[in-house]
Write a structure and sequence with these properties.
Blueprint: E1 20-32, E2 36-43, E3 46-53, H1 59-63, E4 70-79, E5 94-105, H2 122-127, H3 129-132, H4 136-158, E6 162-163, E7 181-183, E8 191-193, H5 199-207, E9 212-221, E10 232-242, H6 246-263, E11 269-270, E12 277-279, H7 280-286, E13 301-302, H8 304-307, H9 313-320, E14 324-330, H10 338-350, E15 358-362, E16 365-367, H11 369-372, H12 376-386, E17 393-399, H13 401-418, E18 426-427, E19 429-433, E20 438-440, E21 447-449, H14 460-466, E22 476-481, E23 484-491, H15 496-505, H16 510-516, H17 518-524, E24 531-534, H18 538-545, H19 576-581, H20 590-598
Helix pairs in contact: 4-6, 4-18, 5-17, 14-15, 16-17
Amino acid sequence: MHAYRTHNCGELRPEHAGTEARLSGWVHRMRDHGNLVFVDLRDHFGLTQCVTDVSSDIFKAVEGLANESVITVTGMIERRSDDTVNLELPTGEVELRIATLEVQSEAEPLPMPVNQDAGYPEDIRLSYRFLDLRREALHANIMLRAAVIASIRRRMVEAGFTEFQTPILTSSSPEGARDFLVPSRLHPGQFYALPQAPQQFKQLIMIAGFDRYFQIAPCFRDEDARADRSPGEFYQLDFEMSFVTQDDVLEAIEPVLAGVFQEFADGRQVTEPPFPRIPFDETMLKYGSDKPDLRIPLEITDVTEAFRGSNFGIFAKAVDGGAVVRAIPAPGAASQPRSWFDKLNDWAREEGAAGLGYIVFEDGGGKGPIARNLEDERVAAIAEITGLGDGDAVFFACDKAMAAAKFAGLVRLKMGEDLELVEPGVFRFCWIVDYPMYEADEETGKIEFSHNPFSMPQGGLEALEGQDPLEVKAWQYDIVCNGVELSSGAIRNHRPDIMYKAFEIAGYTPDEVETEFAGMLNALKFGAPPHGGSAPGIDRIVMLLADEPNIREVVAFPMNQQAQDLMMKAPSEVDPAHLKELHLRVSLPPQEKKEEGES
């Protein structure tokens, strides 16, 4: 018999009754019934009930076990009586009658329970993440993550992609988020950077003559934490393709994403390819966001003309000054109490708006503060434009176009939640396409890149030379699911002449381009194929499939919101001798120096 187990704790069934078995695992829960002690024994695979009675020589030893101690038990497998069968447990028809017990490791008193999912403070959970990971729900999330990655790899290989690895120690990038820097011992005063993404390397792989690349890539960015973004590091399905158009890229990755979501949907509906493609301008108008949640059946409309020159002076004056008015429908909201509208007004102020005006449609007309100051025919026009009628309400966002769109998008999400309009049990995918290549800084008017400076402009060099820069679109695209952006992608600019011109419009001189982007520019000068790709986020994919609101619930060892690893105590101070070897000296900010001296 094996030293530790003949079966795992999720394996035993009625057909094993009458045979001897050995199990090893963690004491999940003890139940002492006086003359009987039940031990729920847990391992990676499941849970088995073990039992001993007062007549056994090991009764006292079993009775004294602490939860989460690791034990090995040997005994006969017995069928449970009909009244004690637990059909919710795969092993619930049998139990192991303990004949021998060996304690492999005793557990000290626990800082947090493992056998229940009661909420515990995040600092405790992260400090003792190895215990947290023993909990059933979190354990299942990490196994789901592993299965999702395995599925993605298989599907990518089947689609003709080859997995490559790219460097972790590389050079700092002048674009994007902050880099994590690694000092060089051999080159004093010089630093490597951890890659924010394998962007340049995957393009170089295409330039090197390979055709379809992918990897499950670790990426490092010194960014603040959010619910859908880990501080420090994350993983993405990074891929790139040669000799492709935008259509080719989207059509290549859609079956992979749809297939993975269908595989792990657990009864939820998944958008069938081809996914809807929504131009950027359209999504900002209809949904107020470039990551629209299509589970909410509400569309924003433009009602600017209904307020131009109207008696509602606040909006009329704003429209004369260049503002727009967006209408957000609230079907059935007329039945809501006045307190609901008042709370929405307070919420709007918390979001930085002056308030949230509205019209309630009743008895063939409009009611509310705006309706009282707006001509009847204009109220009727708003009802017609929005498709609303008696029993409905409509809210308004009035501001400059982009600000109005973003606030209207927030209101749309709020309506979806408050009015319970979010479609359950579905994954709604879409592509956002036709991003503007440039935007104007609101304060300075300076032309800047709006999305990705290395994307190919639609129309190529001719568009850059002959169009208003703010009218030029780029071959850029985002994949969105249920309001979560999974990735951005683009057809890359593979021509140096177009690259020089694109950066010239954004205020870069040729010398600056050659200095800051020398590696990529030099590669493009030696024959680069048209190529493009994207990089859907693994963490976000798993977060959606696990139906978790926070990305830390699908990462085995995450940092907290302050980018600290509470379990491994990172970041931490290092030995002065190590700093000296790296030619580094710590210079703390004045406030920190003062606090250090006071402590």
